[in-house]
Amino acid sequence: MRIKRISVYQVDLPLAEGPYNWSGGNTVRTFDSTIVRVETDAGLTGYGEVCPLGPAYLPAYAAGARAGIAELGPALLGLDPTQIGILNHAMDAALKGHPYVKSPLDIACWDILGQVAGLPVCELLGGRYGDDFILYRAISQESPEKMAELVATHRDEGYTRFQLKVGADPSDDIERIRIAASRLGPEDRLIADANTGWLMHDAKRVVAAVSDVDLYIEQPCLSYEECLSVRASTPHPFVLDESIASVHDLLRASNDDAMDVINLKISKLGGITKARQMRDLCVSVGIAMTIEDTWGGDFTTAAIAHLAHSTPPRFLFTSTDFNSYVTVSTATNPPLRKHGRLSAPDSPGLGLEPSFGVLGDPVLVIE
Ligand code: MG
């Protein structure tokens, strides 16, 4: 089986609750998402998606994904999409770095491999643990009172994990944490995600002021070394996200006891193949994970669901249903949250049928 055509679609995904804000004054109102369609000479078709969280979060941007696929795509024509190791090797040989460009192509090939095997991707990634898995809700950076209201609203929907976007003025952030925590029960978990927004002295003030709160601290500062310094000054469980972009980062951080949990984003690593490698390594060394991506719609949510559902539940701290944050659906049978939990689709591959009326015409075809 050979790849004969790669089509690229661009889709705007507006946020249902209005602007999503995080540290540093960053905000997104509508996501610019890229969906790839990989067609084979055997009549099988696979889909993948990449959706950066705007251009200022990670070294990735939406138009860059499409420019990268235009550069890389021709090197994949004629390759067998079911030989996923070989395919990833070819992508790395043709384009150095730029993992987010490779991610939707890798996901689409997993979709095809699942269809060939007659199995959902989660079963190829190790098996389906139980009926469903746990989700978190990201709470946009707003006033402390509004964030607490959003926590309460989403708790009523069944969520039990809440990631507060902090990383602003430390005194405001302390209030954000305290008010939100007051709305939660003992079964809930609260994460204060600064998204690199604090300096070390800011972070140390915050963790000292909320030392009595049952709370996780996520990526307080920009650099790994700053985060290590904050980690040493707090007993709170500690999550690293932006600082973990490769297996090398994970190995170093594990050896340094730099965190208890990592945030594993599929496109940051280059696709399901490399995310699975990191997932399995985390399971081996006892590090729990939030399994997710930078954002996206139905196809990203399905890819996340397959990786999360095949992760031992004790190691899956949280995952996410990004398609519930946006107003546009790109598939006719998307995975949908029930009571704060999600399950991976049951049909072979990713298990999604695209809505071509939403995708429109491709913005790029490589053949
Ligand atoms: Mg984070």
How would you summarize this macromolecular structure in one to three sentences?
With 367 residues, this protein is an alpha/beta fold. 36% of the residues lie in helices and 21% in strands.
Briefly note the CATH topology name of the largest domain: TIM Barrel
Which structural class is indicated by helix and strand composition?
alpha/beta
**Ligands bound to this protein structure:** magnesium ion
Rg, Å, rounded: 20 Å
Sheet with the most strands? 8 strands, parallel
Q: CATH homologous superfamily of the largest domain - what is it?
A: Enolase-like C-terminal domain
Order of helices and strands: EEEEEHHHHEEHEHEHEHEHEHHEHEEHE
Range of helix content: 25-40%
Tally of strands: 16
Question: What structural keywords apply?
Answer:
367 residues; alpha/beta; Enolase-like, domain 1; TIM Barrel; eight-stranded parallel β-sheet; four-stranded antiparallel β-sheet; 21% strand; binds magnesium ion
